[in-house]
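Consider the following assembly input.
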Amino acid sequence: MAETASRPTLEAVAARAGVSRATVSRVVNGGDGVREPLVERVRRAVEELGYVPNQAARSLVTKRHDAVAVVIAEPETRVFADPFFGLQLRGISKELTAHDNQLVLLLTEGRDDHARVARYLAGGHVDGALVFSLHLDDPLPGLIRGAGVPTVFGGRPGWSDGTGGVVYVDSDNRGGSRNAVRHLAGLGRRRIAHITGALDQTSAADRLDGYRDVMGDADPRLVEQGDFTPAGGERAMRELLDRCPDLDAVFAANDLTASGALRVLRERGRRVPEDVAVIGFDDMLPVAEHTDPPLTTIRQDIEEMGRLMARLLLDGPDPRRHGESTAAGAPTGVVLPTTLVRRATA
Amino acid sequence: MAETASRPTLEAVAARAGVSRATVSRVVNGGDGVREPLVERVRRAVEELGYVPNQAARSLVTKRHDAVAVVIAEPETRVFADPFFGLQLRGISKELTAHDNQLVLLLTEGRDDHARVARYLAGGHVDGALVFSLHLDDPLPGLIRGAGVPTVFGGRPGWSDGTGGVVYVDSDNRGGSRNAVRHLAGLGRRRIAHITGALDQTSAADRLDGYRDVMGDADPRLVEQGDFTPAGGERAMRELLDRCPDLDAVFAANDLTASGALRVLRERGRRVPEDVAVIGFDDMLPVAEHTDPPLTTIRQDIEEMGRLMARLLLDGPDPRRHGESTAAGAPTGVVLPTTLVRRATA
DNA sequence: GTGAAAGCGCTAACAG
DNA sequence: CTGTTAGCGCTTTCAC
């Protein structure tokens, strides 16, 4: 690849404006403490020369990079199969942009990549990291914490090993789940089944907990494991129907799962919502609006989660020594509310 | 946000290994021209100290960044609604990683962002750019070419203004399209309709051209405009059915569109494929495998497109003065083949 | 083959 | 308020 063409330096601008490099630097960085006429002259010189600061030189002295890494683990599975991460990225990007930070995307596919990511983060190339760690046993979070970079996690990490101080943003999975099941119960449904997500992710576990909160010690055969995919939803729905033909409602761990369940329900001749009411989770528009019939679901504001993660990283609580307890001693998780969106299935 | 903790420098490693900074530098950068025992000593020192080169310092002198920007315009519309960009990103990421390059993600949402991106690219922060420009009238490509950064476009740009030398990677949309229509014709279908994509994108235009290549001057009422979304597919399908109740096949511009069309077909009581054969484009697995019935479609290897874009940027033809004609004078577009994947709808 | 020295372009004390 | 002066950590001639 080609080298970047040589661009004008501070020196050049200074010469043109007839001032010192330091003055130009001051103006470029906000212009405080420089008298108006000079500011003006420098601005013009910058303009005329098309000067853009050299970030490398700046970083070298400031030790800041104005860049944040976004680490997404295991794209092979879900990533981009549903729009989840895309939306999250959008939120992150907006917030970072507003703070003049760049987004360095790190996608990982396995153990080798973990080492690579850890090395990169430890290398101090970025000011912080936003990490999506999907699985309970993922070694990545540990590596990352070891790297000593301020980090915010997307979704509650599974390894709450008591260290506290882990910063994360999550939806109120448990509460939303309760809401869903209560809604179903309010509709008069009594045999409410649940298709879980991949239970090695806290979001799935939390949603299952929410279901149990409301259902108490209901028939355990009403719960079947899914994996957040339509195919998993189909499989689980078939299983459930065979096992409990009398079920009259299904709460699916996400919209994709619900779409699979819906397909099986139709195939088996159950009317939705007359015979079986269905409710999903996520409110993934392209999915939820186009199932047949349109899906009632629990909405989480995914883009906002992304934005919040970035904000937390940039202004966050005690970012100096992330990983320790804060002064308050509290683990700093932020949980966003969910809302029920009613369409046609429940 | 916190500053990056201070890490060991070249100097420290040199001291520890009992050599000069220059020697350490040589070893770190491949170790050519350094005698084996010394290499060994330095390696150990690096290891023990956990030394990682400071990229900013290196860039400052080499003027290279080992970083590539990926610019995705207008996320609001399609991006991440279908897995297209995600897959592409994955391919890009893999290739960049293999070349030790970082991926800087630039998402844009409007005119303001354009200026921002142009400034960033012109600022020489990255060694090159991978750009997805969706719309014919997008000003972004122009701005980017003006920034003087080596660039590879994803999808054939619409503004082939005769300058030549534009490097891009695209699927054989037109050929794939012909293939689809011929397949339908081979099945004995005669009234083959086409639901287009958003026609301000070259991929949609090319697919329409392919359809016409085969259909010649067929009934123009068999073509209805869509927009690459399921909703657009539904709308267009309804229209088509009203206008030409005798149609016996539909070629949709992408799988999402086909899924919408399928829904309407079912709703109107047409059996697929008996009454109406349907074929899509993309082979977006989560969509194509789970339509009802599973969708026959034209596959394009999206991840490979991404990988190829990155490869082209990194080793590309005459990258020094991108934008000019190459020695051969040819515009350097790379077009990837497509294949027909037969499932149940055609 | 190895070391010494000179910057890369910028910011941050510190003087003036 | 503005200019002068040191480096930031690294690569790269250029001698030895």
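Residues 19-23, 26, 33-35, 38, 57, 59-63 of chain B lie near DNA strand C (CB under 10 Å from a C1'). Ask yourself how this observation constrains the way the partners meet.
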